[in-house]
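G.,

No rush on this.
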Amino acid sequence: MVREQVDRLLRQLARARRLPVVLLQGETGTGKGLLATYLHRHGPRARGPFVDLNCAAIPDTLLEAELFGFERGAFTDARHAKPGLFQAAQGGTLFLDEVGLLSLPLQAKLLKALEERTVRRLGSTRPTAVDVWVIAASNENLVGAVRAGRVREDFYHRVAALVVRLPSLRERSEDIGVLSDHFLARFCNEYGLPRKHLGPGALAALRDYSWPGNVRELANVIERATLLADGEELLPDVLQLPTSDKRASRI
């Protein structure tokens, strides 16, 4: 199971002087962000900040400044110096989601930062040392991206020092109960509702569903059910699962 692999990894890293980059690979919605948060909270950098960046959400022209920071006057609107996310995560964890979408030039600059453990702000001539645990994630097979020329081979080998593969939720139905309980407790707390629990029929329905949206879809289903359920026990009908998308083996 993924949990056992991760816990074993955390035990091995507990006294490490240098932390390797960890690459989380899995389909969209498999919970890579949740796992990155878990690694931080239970890892050797738990007392430091957790900083996350979705590399696909920021234009490539701004990503370099976002990651490494900039000095005053580095570009037209740079009226004040600003540290980048590497410096913001000093002593903690930097989670870089969708690293396979970085441009080749930016991959080269990130590779240099990872290897030398220094960053240089835009407009600066002096590098700054950084001590950050980098966790990366991708929803595609980066080996294929290397073959296609979209990912540098040296960059791949650096970010894939340790790879944790997250199977789709349909491949790990044994985790559905644990994940559902986690989301149920979380949403009850966030919405100020009394504690609720899954009835056996609801749990069976969750395990019977194929989860094309993976863990993200499960979280959405549990959030909706938490708000709609009248009593303390969640029943199958409150889940509102599509009836036409059952596991093929049970049709």
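When you get to it, here's the other one too:
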Amino acid sequence: MRKLSLTAGMLLVAMPGVSQAHVKWFCAYDTTVPPLPIRDVITPTFLAVAGLFCGLMFTAYVIDRVVDTSIWAKRFDNAIFRSDACTSTIIRVAVGILFLVLWESGGIILTPELNTTSNVVPWLQLAIAGSMLSRSTLKYGAAGIMLLYVYAIADYGAFHLMDYPIFPGIAVYLALTSVENPQFRALRMPVLYASVAVTMMWGAIEKFGYPYWTFPLLTTHADLTLGFSFDQFMYIAGFVEFSLAFFMLTGTALLRWACAALLLLMTSAIPEFGKVDAIGHLLIIASLLAMIIAGQRTIQLPPALARAGVLKQASILTLGYSATVVVSFALYYSSQFLAGR
């Protein structure tokens, strides 16, 4: 248990890149095969790691709330650079680059494993890239992204595309950026936060349900497991990813640190897996950069919870974290079951 505690702390700072490479891009997979039975996932090791991360999350919330109530934290937060134009530009440039690369590569719908022989898709991708040049045309780019997402669902199934809520999230972000109504435009960052967080949490549950998909990568990068068995490593990797994503939605003063840690996890895989991983994760990387600039206050806690004491807030949020893990398992397994019928 002590080894698990020490390593979990290390992984929160710098997760080995192999755990963040999207496994479907590099290894054989079959989403029609059911995930591991839940009794084979909820092992004593899983429960130990889960308990450890609940403790870490409680501690993080206590520190987060204490820091958030301090005067110097508010002064620091007010002094941090924020620019709506900068965050919007980051997203638009990333979308433009991604779809230019997809157009030039050909045969890919949205991500490396989503292949197509359509002659129309590359030209739609080029049109999406071009639409990023003007705010007035962003809504057309948003519609194009949703068309490609629906097209991919038709070819690969809804369960497979549930891996990528980042794409409809980016589409909504772009559509809201193009409107004049300030109340609607204010929803852009919460949508971006939610789509990134759900993408990461869904991927974390996949690590628990289909850990053996990643085992070939771990075999060729065994030194990155830090001496843990493959099963233990996948448990820790999944909880690191899930915990940071959940904290990104619910944190305040330390929210930027959660975004920065997730950014580190994403970029740590690039040296190992090259441009495929860099392009595949480009939208998430750009979104995290935009969220670091935007900072806290984009998603507000319920007023009753915000007024509660530090320990009560930390306890409720940790319970919410635990409940979200359970609900995510239920959604993942039920979605796969319905997809396989």
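The CA atoms of residues 21 and 100 lie 22 Å apart. The chain has 18 helices and no strands.

Enjoy the weekend,
O.
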